[in-house]
Amino acid sequence: MFTKILIANRGAIACRIIRTLSAMGIQSVSVYSLADADSLHVTQADQAYSLGEGGAKQTYLDIEKVISIAKQCGAQAIHPGYGFLSENVDFVAACEKNGLVFLGPTTEQMLQFGLKHRARELAEQANVPLLPGSGLLDDLNDALQCAEKIGYPVMLKSTAGGGGIGMQRCNSAIELSQAYDSVKRLSENNFSNSALFLEKFIVRARHIEVQIFGDGKGQAIALGERDCSAQRRNQKVIEESPAPNLDAKLREKLHTTATRLAAAVNYRSAGTVEFVFDQQTQQFYFLEVNTRLQVEHGVTELVYKVDLVEWMVNLAANQLPALSELDKNIVANGHAIQVRLYAEDANKDFQPSAGLISHVNWPTSVDHGTLRIDHWLESGCEVSPVLDPMLAKIICHSQTRERALSGLKQSLASSEVYGIETNKDYLLQLLGSEVVEAGLLLTQSLNQFVYKPCSIDVLSGGTQTTIQDYPGRKGYWDVGVPPSGPMDSVGFRLANTLLGNSDKAAGLEITVSGPTLRFNSATQIVITGAQIEARLDDLNIKNGQVIAVSAGQTLILGNIQGAGARCYLAVQGGIQCPDYLGSKSTFTLGQFGGHAGRALRTGDVLPVNALTDRQLDGNGSSDLSVQLPEITDDWSIRVIYGPHGAPDFFCPEDIDEFFAATWKVHFNSSRTGVRLMGPKPKWARIDGGEAGLHPSNIHDNAYAVGTIDFTGDMPVILGPDGPSLGGFVCPVTIIKADLWKVGQLKAGATIRFQAVSIMDAQQLELQQIKSLAAG
Hints:
By secondary structure, the protein is α+β, with helices and mostly antiparallel strands. It is 25% helix and 30% strand.
């Protein structure tokens, strides 16, 4: 048996292979592009070697680099996974030349089935039903003549194509003429082979494939079939086993046809024979053979309780029992369904999404079944724009298709991947569609499926727009984590109250100038806080008004007008993002919470809740005539005196002057702290003693949000993102009922401070809470 195997792949499949090798007591060696340095396949392997920088061509597809690492680490065999080098005959030859065992079929079998026109010839020799088609085409005229004989529609295919690349449906001679040169060029660029051929296109088609395994000596067995009809642009989206709504005799015929073809060429290792099934005539036709492990192999493993990777390793080590013996013990058990989770935006024509994954959390079990998630992610991973965007395969197995489908919906809904866009919501809506629930998918079905996203597209982010919630991040102040949350909590809470949201619902805090947002679903919004230029399409809107927003409308928030520094946007049901330490609030300095721990940027997508039918029925603009807080540039703010006053730190006249002065807000102010300009204190001491040279210095002292500390001669109001400890004196602290005013302090605004008692402060806070609850 092998002691060390190199995995020439990445991501979910590499992690899945590592898992099997570990269970077999075999050391695993991963290779990785620097773009994948944080991938779990790097950290989970026994050893990991870098392939350097660059895309797939410079890393995972570099045969020389992979072979060199295999020899360097002392690996005896290489598992290619799927994609990349898994069907590359030059790679297999290089393995053999360097004394490395390739865990897969032979080069001859790859060549035979790798060229689709040759695969058709082998299938014909094995009496496998074929679609009407052509041989290799000489030119466009040859293609047009063959298409007339076959009958439109036809599929123009590259003989060397794969993964849905190098094929195009043509419904007429005009479409075939337009497609011929582009498909030929695509084939040459992607596969270094420009040869094309034609096949009849079945309009009401299903894609059904049979998992085979051969011993290389003429024995081959089938491990059931999979339905992969849910396809978008010839790429599979949902896969399941067994195929639903299929006659038992037809199912058996598929299996025997596939094994007959595999045995005819002495097929070795795992492979898949793919068929087109005509739903109208109930006939199946040969499509192609994939000479590797498939992305969807997991559904077969769960139904048949086998490990195909283990079989591949044991076969290569000559330790696999005879297939005839294995076949006796293989029995289908229940049903398994898989979806592929991709980093892509289904609302933008499935464009790939890249960037930081700020939060990952997977469910660990499912009701009435078995859950398996093959993935490579953890919080903090970066998804590269130059590599395949598949993040995970989520598979659920249960005794019935209905339960498996229900479990898959449950587990997918509970899966959390946040920071960039994924196709999760698209998959959830698709799984809930009638055609999927009935098991009646055709290969063209997804073309008619309409996805309805519940989200907001950020077309521009504004100056500093962050997600916040109230009361923010509580319970961590003593370990240095600030509460964050809205600086003007009154304005923020009032917006949620007007919408009937919970007090904890997350919304947007907007500073100086606002974002431009496109709503992808109907909802309701409210703007509060400082007045801001606001337009919904061509309609000007004002603060404190509940506004109905239709799907497709754009909200343009310009500059804050007049007094105040911040405004707030609440959305019905709140913005949906993960909690971090119990809050959705953004702490940009700590780079956590909110949307990837930062202010919004162009291209971000914010998830929101779908409105219920009842909410939609009552969805209309209304002015609720609430009393909005007065926002000014001339503030009176109430404070509690202490803890560091006269005569220990300040002279009595310093304190008198502090309350008598009109303070001005410094331009260098932020959520961390608001700096104030005014009279300099004379101080009651000449220095800070052991704490420092300046009289304002003291040994570290606990702060509260709203504390006014003197950093030298300049007072600073501690903001919600400020430090919990500091070495400066604090003569006063703003009362809770007036803390919201700090969020509206604009550069140049003036403040006078008014001292009140603790009892008065408590009473004012209770009054404010009552007022907010009443709306």
